[in-house]
Every structure is written in C-alpha cells, then in structure tokens.
Automatic annotation (TrEMBL):
Gene Ontology cellular component list: cytosol
Entry protein name: Bifunctional protein FolD
Binding, NADP(+): G173, R174, S175, I239
Gene Ontology terms, MF aspect: methenyltetrahydrofolate cyclohydrolase activity; methylenetetrahydrofolate dehydrogenase (NADP+) activity
EC number(s) given by UniProt: 1.5.1.5, 3.5.4.9
Gene3D superfamilies: Leucine Dehydrogenase, chain A, domain 1, NAD(P)-binding Rossmann-like Domain
Boundaries of every Tetrahydrofolate dehydrogenase/cyclohydrolase catalytic domain copy: 7-127
Keyword Coiled coil assigned: no
Protein family membership: Belongs to the tetrahydrofolate dehydrogenase/cyclohydrolase family.
Summary of the function given for this chain in its UniProt record: Catalyzes the oxidation of 5,10-methylenetetrahydrofolate to 5,10-methenyltetrahydrofolate and then the hydrolysis of 5,10-methenyltetrahydrofolate to 10-formyltetrahydrofolate.
Keywords tagged on the record: Amino-acid biosynthesis, Histidine biosynthesis, Hydrolase, Methionine biosynthesis, Multifunctional enzyme, NADP, One-carbon metabolism, Oxidoreductase, Purine biosynthesis
A matching Pfam family: THF_DHG_CYH
Amino acid sequence: MSQARIIDGKAFAQNLRDRLALQVADLRSTGAKGGQDLVPGLAVVLVGENPASQVYVRSKGQATVAAGMRSFEHKLPDTTDQATLVALVEKLNRDPAVNGILVQLPLPAQIDPAVVIATIDPAKDVDGFHVENAGRLALGLPGMVPCTPLGCMMLLRDVLGDDLRGKRALVLGRSTIVGRPMASLLLAADCTVTIAHSRTQDLPEECRRADILVAAVGRPEMVRGDWIKPGATVIDVGINRVPHADPAAAAEGRTRLVGDVHFAEAMTVAGAITPVPGGVGPMTIACLLLNTLTATCRQNGVPLPGSVPEADTAAP
Ligand SMILES: Nc1nc(=O)c2c([nH]1)NC[C@@H]1CN(c3ccc(C(=O)N[C@@H](CCC(=O)O)C(=O)O)cc3)C=[N+]21
C-alpha cells in the first residue's frame, strides 16, 4: 500500500527561522535609521493563566529572541478589564520599539476580543486579525496575513510547487483566524476553492473532490481515509488533546495530540500530509516572526530582504 509523504513542518519552520535570523542581523547593521539600529520588536500580551496560552506565549518569546528580535511580554491578571487592556494596546501602538503586537486569544469573558483587536494599529497587527487586514486579504490587497494560513500556504508550495493554478482546494472550517483567510490565499493562488462547514451537505463527497484539503474545524480525527482523494495534499490545522490511546495511561489522565484528520488512515491515501504535532503548529510561530520582520521593514520604509518570502502572497 502507498504511503503519503509526511510534510515536516517543524524542519521547514526551523529553516525559515534561521533565514529570518540572518535577515534580522542584516537589518541591524544596514537598516539603521537616524543613527539607531533597527531591531524588530514583538509585544505579546497575555491576560489570565490559561495553561495552553502560557506555553504558547513562552515559546513565542523564545523564538523571537532566538531570531535576534526583541520580545516584550505583558502578563495581566485574569480580572483585567477591557479599558485597561485597550489602554495597554494604545501604549504599544505608540511605542517605536514595538513593531508587532499580538494579544493572545482567548481572552477572559469580560473582554470583547473584537474591541481589543480593533484597537491594534493595523501596521503592527502581526496576527492579521484587524478588520483592515482581513479586508485587505479578502480584496487581494497587501496587508498582514494571519500566521497559520500563511504557514499552510508555504507548506503547500513546498510540496506542490509555486503553481497552484486550477487545483481544487477544500477548506474545512470557516473561522476568521484560519478558514476564511486560508480560502482567500488559495483563491489568490488561482485555486478553485470550496469552503465546507458544519452545514455542508455530504461532506465526505466534497472532500473527495479536493486536490488540496485543509482541515481546520477542531474536531479530533473527523476526516477519515475514505474522505480523501488518492494522492491529495492534506494540511491538518487541528490540534486536539484527547485521552491517551492506552486505557491505563488514559485512566491516569494522560493525553495525546491529534489533528482534525485521522492520520493513520490518511497516510494510506494522501500524497502528502502534515503531522500533528510537528506540522502546521511550528509554522504558525515562524510566520509570526516573518510578519514581525515584514511589519518592521514596512514601518521603516526598508525593502523586504530578498530571501524572505513576500508574506502578502505567501510566494516562496
Ligand atoms: N492572538 C493569537 N495568535 C495566535 O497565533 C494564537 C492565539 N492567539 N491563541 C492560540 C493559538 C494557537 N497557536 C499555536 C501556535 C503554535 C503551535 C505549535 O507550535 N504547536 C506545536 C506543539 C504542540 C504541542 O505540543 O502542544 C506543534 O503542533 O507541533 C500551536 C498553536 C497560536 N495561536
């Protein structure tokens, strides 16, 4: 039986981070402005003590420093009110050392994420969540592109080459942070794009038509082997924690990570597939650094370094 190629997102992300570190070093020496070195700065704001969020924020901070950028971490208590968070974001908007701002989601219930995101200066919105950036992407205009879809496009181009024209792409999920921007990027690459969701009729049949299948619904192992077109490229965005496969281990409360795709089944049908973990997740963080470098260059009127991919289009 044939076996899919496993797309090594971890290695791809590390390679991208290494290239970004070289560009950051270059920018330091050549991009000096007004006698000041140009060092990209990323501010990450965490409200509350969600353990998963704490882990992500720590690894983002480490990756930022490893790339030679400045990391500013702001940790606020769970009880923080919206006005306080908005005031912090406004301060970061004005801070010239801060080129990128990320407010970790989810936020506590007393804070409306839409209000906070709307406060972020679109030029510093390295998540690409601001309405202005979402609108730009939808219209095919340059802007900041959300990190996860951007990383997915890079992996797709690595597998399939730069020319994705005419390929049938199915995006499973319509979230504002993955599904919708992913569909926009695929459309910009001239794919024939379908967005499927919880109300889609005959979902398995829709999936089976796709040359490119991007699963981003947050349902563990929902996509089965017989939903996949033989030879298709499968990008699994899901990160779901489920009880450990071994009942004894599960009884001790141990868990494992699975994607939205049944990996073992998909392996026998797909042409290539991203694993979970080690697929899309590491690309999200690498693309956050890429967006921070892109934002820094644009804010300072410095051209993007040649070997850094043009984030807007996710071209190689
Ligand atoms: N404003 C905001 N921006 C985000 O980009 C954002 C956010 N909020 N909130 C939470 C989600 C989640 N997210 C991940 C980043 C990296 C991995 C990652 O590197 N995962 C590894 C390890 C997974 C593990 O072991 O837990 C992997 O898939 O191999 C996963 C998930 C960013 N998010």
